[in-house]
Fold this sequence. Notes:
Elements: H1 4-25, H2 32-41, H3 46-74, H4 78-96, H5 102-119, H6 123-150, H7 157-182, H8 188-215, H9 217-221, H10 223-247, H11 252-258, H12 262-280, H13 298-302, H14 306-337, H15 360-382, H16 390-404, H17 415-432, H18 439-456, H19 463-477, H20 487-507, H21 516-537, H22 548-571, H23 577-580, H24 585-609, H25 615-641, H26 648-672, H27 680-708, H28 713-716
Helix pairs in contact: 1-2, 1-6, 1-18, 2-6, 2-19, 3-4, 3-5, 3-6, 3-8, 4-5, 4-15, 5-6, 5-16, 7-8, 7-10, 7-12, 8-10, 10-14, 12-14, 14-27, 15-16, 15-20, 16-20, 17-19, 17-20, 18-19, 21-22, 21-25, 22-24, 24-27, 25-26, 26-27
Amino acid sequence: MLSRKAKESIKVALAMTIAYGISLSQDWDRPYWAGLAISVVSLASIGQSMSHAALRMFGTLVAAVVALTFIALFAQDRWAFILTVSVYAGFCCYMMSGSKHAYFWQVSCFVAVIICLDGGADPVNAFNTAVLRSQQTGLGILVYSLVAIFLWPSRSINAFNAAATELARSQNQFYQACLGLAQGQGDVTEVQRLNSLVVQAKTRFDKQLDAAEIDSTDVWELRQPWRRYQQQEMDLMQALERWRESLVEVEAQQLQLLLPNLEIYGAELDRRLAQITRMLDDHAPDRVLQIQELAFDKDALRRLSHFDRASVVVAHSNMLQLEQLIRALFETLSELKGYGTTSAIPDPPRSGQSLFLPDLDRLANAARYMAIIWMAWLALIYVNDLPGGTGLVSFAAALGIAIANMPQLPVSKLVAPSAGSVLFAAILYIFLMPMLSSFFDLGLMIFTATFAITYLYSEPQQMLGRALGLGMFVAIASISNEQSYNFLSVANTAMMFPLIFLVYATTAYFPWSPRPERRFMRLLGRYFRSSEYLMSATRWDPSRSATWLDHWKKAFHAREVATLPAKLGSWAPHLDNWALSSTSMEQVQTLMNSLQLLSYRMERLLGESDKPQAAFLVQQLLEDIRAWRIGIQTSFKRLAAGPPAGGQEVLRERLAQTLDKLEVRIKEAVDNSPDAQHSERDAESFYRLLAAYSAVSTALVEYVDNAAAIDWVPWHEERFV
């Protein structure tokens, strides 16, 4: 019985052999382009392969049009030509790192560069190159598609169902852990672990849904409800995270006292989530939804301080939102599984992003990629007898776009797989291929070599080695009907790699140092500079209306604060042991968690500060809120200059005094205000704002505590890399 790994390797090898046979029988040039297409579209299931193949084919066609346009416009001006090509390449690189269809942008970029350089100033040659590239890519995709469909077809519907069930089950476990915290039970560490599992399960579900839409008619016919279900899952993830975060601000015993039926209400939501998992296992729900109320004990609520009252109001509101989202998810899944119809619950409004907000890190990646192209191009022009010729620029561009979008990957990691790939392909080219006398012999070699590479590099984390191995094999072999053998072709290809790696290593310092600890520190500085600006944007000033530029800057910095913790998390695993010194990775992860918590609370503060407040309360508390805001701004400014080296006790005491003073002023303002000047809705809105202020202060102190526990001195020291 063949293993799954062997079956997939046989399919790739067979498709590669057939594609070469068709191309050679039709006397088409450069059949290795078909082989390259097969090597990259062969994925775990038909759906994933077809999705990847569609992106590659569409990207190739777009690249052909773009390349021919550039050649037609700038055939006589090489500097305008390379400038235009590099700008287009930079644009594709920028779009690649932020797009759902990243592979489309990658292909449309490097294929355009290849056609431009291979075509040269000859429009006829350029057109033939574009057509040949599209033709060979289409051949490779068609052959692999047919082989994958008829030989051991592996559809993604089972993996999709498993991913959907895993997501629902992990969300249920995460909810149960959070409910345990609300009831005075549970473990915060376990809650964080379960939250990470939910994020991973959601990523797998999204990936499998894309594939299942292509190779499953059942999913395709219900694609709109499934996409609605996908969005509702995302909304539920965010709501669960907000609820968990609000539980930190209120004591469990206090919450159960103020919400007497919290246990019954929470158990009902738990049963709904269990019913969702049951439906995903293709079992009809064995109970109907029961509407529960989550009422306050108003007498107990009035005995609380205003800040404690605000925390309870927020936790209560988040719990109500959870009920709505879980109900909507339950009814959408009932529709999908045929157990019921969706009620007329409107989807939550989604604010369209009308402003262009540049991502500084994506811009830096694009700048590095343009520098790669320019360095290779200038070397081609000014260095005589450069190994590879235009192939040097093409190869640097083809691999460089992936390298530029993975700045965490050191260039040294590419040396071993590249050297091994070249050596393997060179042995076949020099010692084996000259002895082949028929296509049967050649096909057997293609099949065996492809099978060996695919089988040895079958794991997802080995995709780089697989791509380099197959790429070097088809490129160095250069199989054609009029086969010739020249050791210099192998030597030139091998000599290209040190030059290309030198270019990659040089541009790694552009525009910033590649050292992970330096990148980490720079991102931290950006985070707190954006936080400082956002605090200034929360000021109450009814006399001043915000301009378009104010809205743009606020949206930009809000996006920075929301996305930078994840970017810091991508650099954390690459921190050098030398830089960590006496610091453990657990301490760094704790720091990341506190930073993510601060981001959530800053987002909440921004949302609440944008809502209208009672004019009387604003007038009475304007100076007190301003004093608190300036204190937080000052703390953010100091943190932007560098991590704290102690002083957390002073910060904690200062913020506590500010909040105590603000508590007294709030009591005076509310007690002295006539009932007609603020409604119950005004009071609830104001309590939400107070909870947001208090939450930001608490999260800031927690971050400073965690940052002070890290030894930052080695992070600033100079060293050779």
